[in-house]
Design goal:
Blueprint (H helix, E strand, L loop, with lengths): L7 H23 L5 H4 L11 E2 L4 H16 L6 E7 L6 E9 L11 E3 L5 H9 L3 E3 L2 H12 L4
Parallel strand pairs: 1-3, 4-5
Antiparallel strand pairs: 2-3, 3-4
Length: about 150
Protein backbone atom coordinates (compact mmCIF):
# COMPACT_ATOMS: atom_id res chain seq x y z
CA UNK A 1 0.00 0.00 0.00
CA UNK A 2 2.86 2.45 0.82
CA UNK A 3 4.47 1.63 -2.52
CA UNK A 4 1.85 3.60 -4.45
CA UNK A 5 2.88 7.04 -5.65
CA UNK A 6 -0.01 8.76 -3.87
CA UNK A 7 1.33 7.37 -0.54
CA UNK A 8 4.88 8.57 -1.06
CA UNK A 9 4.90 10.97 1.91
CA UNK A 10 3.48 8.26 4.19
CA UNK A 11 6.17 5.92 2.87
CA UNK A 12 8.88 8.48 3.79
CA UNK A 13 7.48 8.88 7.31
CA UNK A 14 7.36 5.12 7.85
CA UNK A 15 10.88 4.77 6.46
CA UNK A 16 12.14 7.49 8.81
CA UNK A 17 10.59 5.66 11.77
CA UNK A 18 12.11 2.33 10.78
CA UNK A 19 15.55 3.85 10.19
CA UNK A 20 15.47 5.61 13.58
CA UNK A 21 14.43 2.38 15.29
CA UNK A 22 17.29 0.46 13.64
CA UNK A 23 19.81 3.20 14.41
CA UNK A 24 18.77 3.21 18.09
CA UNK A 25 19.16 -0.55 18.21
CA UNK A 26 22.71 -0.26 16.83
CA UNK A 27 23.54 2.51 19.31
CA UNK A 28 22.31 0.31 22.16
CA UNK A 29 24.64 -2.44 20.94
CA UNK A 30 27.54 0.00 21.13
CA UNK A 31 26.74 0.66 24.79
CA UNK A 32 27.29 -3.02 25.65
CA UNK A 33 24.20 -3.23 27.83
CA UNK A 34 24.71 0.08 29.64
CA UNK A 35 21.45 1.50 28.34
CA UNK A 36 20.85 3.72 31.37
CA UNK A 37 22.46 6.45 29.26
CA UNK A 38 19.51 6.31 26.89
CA UNK A 39 16.93 6.71 29.62
CA UNK A 40 17.97 10.23 30.54
CA UNK A 41 16.66 13.14 28.56
CA UNK A 42 19.34 15.35 27.13
CA UNK A 43 19.67 18.61 29.00
CA UNK A 44 19.80 21.35 26.42
CA UNK A 45 20.93 24.58 28.02
CA UNK A 46 18.66 27.55 27.55
CA UNK A 47 20.00 30.09 25.09
CA UNK A 48 21.99 32.83 26.76
CA UNK A 49 21.59 36.39 25.62
CA UNK A 50 24.97 38.06 25.27
CA UNK A 51 25.73 41.71 24.86
CA UNK A 52 27.21 43.23 21.74
CA UNK A 53 27.79 42.05 18.23
CA UNK A 54 27.80 43.37 14.70
CA UNK A 55 24.40 44.76 13.77
CA UNK A 56 24.73 45.74 10.11
CA UNK A 57 26.51 45.03 6.86
CA UNK A 58 28.02 48.51 6.98
CA UNK A 59 29.52 47.87 10.41
CA UNK A 60 31.01 44.59 9.21
CA UNK A 61 32.54 46.32 6.17
CA UNK A 62 34.10 49.00 8.40
CA UNK A 63 35.66 46.28 10.56
CA UNK A 64 36.98 44.38 7.54
CA UNK A 65 38.53 47.59 6.17
CA UNK A 66 40.09 48.23 9.57
CA UNK A 67 41.63 44.75 9.52
CA UNK A 68 42.98 45.39 6.01
CA UNK A 69 44.50 48.67 7.26
CA UNK A 70 46.16 46.83 10.15
CA UNK A 71 47.63 44.23 7.81
CA UNK A 72 48.90 46.95 5.47
CA UNK A 73 50.93 48.25 8.43
CA UNK A 74 52.36 44.80 9.04
CA UNK A 75 50.22 44.27 12.13
CA UNK A 76 47.92 41.34 12.81
CA UNK A 77 44.24 41.50 11.94
CA UNK A 78 41.86 41.35 14.86
CA UNK A 79 39.18 38.73 15.40
CA UNK A 80 35.83 39.88 14.08
CA UNK A 81 32.88 39.01 16.37
CA UNK A 82 35.12 37.84 19.20
CA UNK A 83 33.15 35.74 21.69
CA UNK A 84 34.21 36.75 25.18
CA UNK A 85 33.42 34.23 27.91
CA UNK A 86 33.89 34.45 31.66
CA UNK A 87 37.35 32.97 32.30
CA UNK A 88 36.21 31.08 35.42
CA UNK A 89 32.83 29.68 34.40
CA UNK A 90 33.18 29.69 30.63
CA UNK A 91 29.76 31.34 30.38
CA UNK A 92 29.39 33.62 27.35
CA UNK A 93 29.40 37.29 28.32
CA UNK A 94 29.58 39.43 25.18
CA UNK A 95 30.56 39.62 21.55
CA UNK A 96 33.18 42.25 20.80
CA UNK A 97 33.05 43.65 17.26
CA UNK A 98 36.80 43.40 16.67
CA UNK A 99 39.33 42.24 19.22
CA UNK A 100 42.94 41.38 19.84
CA UNK A 101 42.56 39.31 23.03
CA UNK A 102 46.34 38.92 23.45
CA UNK A 103 47.15 42.47 22.40
CA UNK A 104 48.01 43.87 18.99
CA UNK A 105 51.63 43.06 19.72
CA UNK A 106 50.94 39.70 21.29
CA UNK A 107 51.87 39.66 24.97
CA UNK A 108 53.57 43.07 24.61
CA UNK A 109 50.44 45.23 24.51
CA UNK A 110 47.15 45.02 26.33
CA UNK A 111 44.06 43.26 24.98
CA UNK A 112 42.27 45.66 22.65
CA UNK A 113 38.73 45.89 21.30
CA UNK A 114 36.98 48.09 18.77
CA UNK A 115 33.33 48.38 19.76
CA UNK A 116 31.25 50.27 17.22
CA UNK A 117 27.75 51.39 18.25
CA UNK A 118 27.83 49.17 21.35
CA UNK A 119 25.90 49.84 24.52
CA UNK A 120 27.46 50.71 27.85
CA UNK A 121 27.06 47.13 29.10
CA UNK A 122 29.27 45.69 26.36
CA UNK A 123 31.90 48.37 26.86
CA UNK A 124 31.84 47.76 30.63
CA UNK A 125 32.27 43.99 30.15
CA UNK A 126 35.25 44.56 27.85
CA UNK A 127 36.80 47.07 30.24
CA UNK A 128 36.39 44.78 33.26
CA UNK A 129 38.04 42.00 31.23
CA UNK A 130 41.11 44.20 30.76
CA UNK A 131 40.49 45.25 27.16
CA UNK A 132 41.44 48.73 26.03
CA UNK A 133 38.23 49.82 24.30
CA UNK A 134 37.73 52.08 21.32
CA UNK A 135 34.32 53.20 20.11
CA UNK A 136 35.71 55.12 17.16
CA UNK A 137 37.81 53.87 14.25
CA UNK A 138 39.61 57.22 14.14
CA UNK A 139 40.61 56.98 17.81
CA UNK A 140 41.75 53.38 17.33
CA UNK A 141 43.91 54.32 14.33
CA UNK A 142 45.46 57.20 16.30
CA UNK A 143 46.26 54.76 19.13
CA UNK A 144 47.88 52.31 16.72
CA UNK A 145 50.01 54.99 15.11
CA UNK A 146 51.10 56.63 18.38
CA UNK A 147 51.31 53.75 20.86
CA UNK A 148 51.97 50.67 18.74
CA UNK A 149 54.00 52.04 15.84
CA UNK A 150 55.40 55.01 17.84
CA UNK A 151 54.75 57.43 14.99
CA UNK A 152 53.37 60.95 15.10
Amino acid sequence: MLWKIENYRDFLEERKTLLAKEANKRFEDLLHGETHWLERKAQVPAPVAVAGGITSQEEEEVLELLNEWMESLGLPAGEISYDYADPESGAPQAIFDLAWPNGIQEELSEPTAVLIDENAETIAIASRAGFRCFTSVTDFKAYVMKEILKEG
